[in-house]
């Protein structure tokens, strides 16, 4: 090679390398969208002035275990997200179709329902009318279960009656003949029910616009205490090693020897330290993630807002509305730790007394959006 050829080949390789580098950078950014937002938005407790910003910028917190991204859908998602954010979210609430209701006994349940719907709608219109949605559509709908026969979308909120809801959806779908026949494991690990993010974008879009969308919520503090009792006060081969270990290691002073720490025996206050920590050693979990971040109430525009406190009436009214078989009733059993007292206001007070008043305030702030959207009152001691 003469010097001229050497120079040319160095130039060609240099340019090719540069192009490859630029391409890789773009590719990496495409694979990890939202990374920046989620690291900003996750652990900080809510300050009241930031509500509006929070609703507009709702990004996913880091949940454990991380869900695999659907890479091939990314491009499609981006374009639909654009479409979605151009819609003026939330759209007007649709009236509930009450053509199947011929019974006076639903009167109070119905008027409660109408009040909740309009409260949520007003709240969202007041605070959430910005439409710079910064999250994936598929993430937005990743907690929503689909029942195609009766055209239902149900957003799963753990610790608010979701196991029995999934049983009902399976019965409606013809997967079981009675809700009482379905075991806990079949409900949660059976993968019988379809989630909305498993459909293509047209499928998601059509269902969001035509199905009856329901969410069932619970007093935030009761839900939190219930999750704590369920996951940390009973042997658990996932929550103890994954969360318990990390929590004890970081928040318990003088923990004697890591080997001794099997992750059992987390105290409520230690759990709260983890929850409120901007540098959590492990991510969030659906059992204590805010409803505002699981179900995106200001973006999805739910038709029906049920509450755990009135679960049976609300659920049975909902079943009437959608035209379910008359004999189908919402089951009322508690299938895990059924001998334990249910987490009620009295139980919650006992746990809250283990916290300092500033910890109580910060925990309340953490769930502040859920309190506002669903009209729950601040806990008192
Ligand atoms: C209400 O539901 C009934 C029964 O499914 C249906 O025939 C009717 O067209 C619906 N009404 C509206 C306004 O959607
Ligand atoms: C975990 O460790 C504690 C204290 O070292 C012990 O009392 C408990 O039985 C252990 N639990 C399990 C499931 O091994
Ligand atoms: C919100 O809750 C309070 C206290 O429970 C109740 O008095 C009020 O009527 C509720 N507001 C709406 C709009 O439902």
UniProtKB/TrEMBL annotation:
Q: Which UniProt keywords apply?
A: Carbohydrate metabolism, Glycoprotein, Golgi apparatus, Membrane, Signal-anchor, Transferase, Transmembrane, Transmembrane helix
Entry keyword annotation includes Transmembrane helix:
yes
Give compartment(s): Golgi apparatus membrane
One GO CC term on file? Golgi membrane
For the keyword Nucleus, the answer is no
Q: Which GO terms describe its biological process?
A: carbohydrate biosynthetic process; proteoglycan biosynthetic process; sulfur compound metabolic process
The source's superkingdom equals Eukaryota
Tell me, what is one Gene Ontology molecular-function annotation carried by this entry? dermatan 4-sulfotransferase activity
A matching Pfam family: Sulfotransfer_2
Q: How does it sit in the membrane?
A: Single-pass type II membrane protein
Q: What is its EC number?
A: 2.8.2.-
Q: Where are the transmembrane segments?
A: 6-28
Which family does this protein fall into? Belongs to the sulfotransferase 2 family.
Instruction: Supply the name of the protein.
Output: Carbohydrate sulfotransferase
């Amino acid at each position: 090679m003469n010097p001229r050829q050497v120079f040319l080949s160095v130039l060609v390789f240099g340019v090719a390398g540069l192009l490859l580098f630029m391409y890789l950078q773009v590719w990496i950014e495409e694979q990890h969208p939202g990374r920046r937002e989620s690291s900003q938005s996750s652990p900080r407790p809510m300050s009241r002035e930031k509500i509006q910003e929070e609703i507009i910028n709702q990004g996913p917190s880091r949940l454990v275990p991380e869900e695999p991204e659907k890479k091939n859908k990314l491009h499609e998602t981006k374009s639909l997200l654009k479409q979605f954010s151009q819609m003026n979210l939330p759209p007007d609430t649709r009236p509930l179709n009450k053509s199947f209701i011929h019974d006076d006994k639903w009167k109070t349940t119905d008027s409660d329902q109408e009040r909740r719907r309009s409260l949520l709608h007003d709240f969202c219109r007041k605070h959430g009318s910005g439409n710079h949605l910064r999250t994936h559509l598929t993430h937005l709908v990743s907690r929503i279960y689909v029942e195609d026969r009766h055209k239902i979308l149900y957003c799963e909120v753990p610790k608010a009656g979701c196991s029995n809801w999934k049983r009902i959806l399976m019965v409606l779908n013809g997967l079981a003949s009675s809700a009482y026949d379905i075991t806990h494991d079949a409900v949660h690990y059976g993968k019988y029910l379809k989630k909305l993010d498993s459909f293509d974008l047209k499928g998601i879009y059509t269902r969001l616009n035509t199905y009856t969308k329901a969410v069932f919520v619970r007093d935030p503090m009761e839900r939190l205490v219930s999750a704590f009792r369920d996951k940390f006060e009973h042997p658990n081969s996932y929550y103890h090693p994954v969360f318990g270990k990390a929590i004890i290691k970081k928040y318990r002073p003088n923990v004697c020897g890591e080997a001794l720490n099997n992750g059992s025996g987390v105290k409520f206050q230690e759990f709260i330290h983890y929850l409120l920590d901007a540098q959590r050693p492990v991510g969030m979990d659906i059992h204590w993630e805010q409803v505002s971040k699981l179900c995106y109430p200001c973006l999805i525009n739910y038709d029906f807002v049920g509450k755990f406190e009135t679960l049976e009436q609300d659920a049975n009214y909902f079943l009437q509305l959608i035209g379910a078989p008359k004999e189908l009733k919402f089951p009322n059993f508690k299938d895990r730790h059924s001998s334990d007292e249910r987490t009620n206001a009295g139980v919650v007070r006992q746990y809250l007394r283990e916290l300092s008043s500033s910890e109580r305030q910060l925990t309340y702030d953490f769930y502040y959006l859920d309190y506002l959207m669903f009209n729950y009152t601040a806990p008192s001691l």
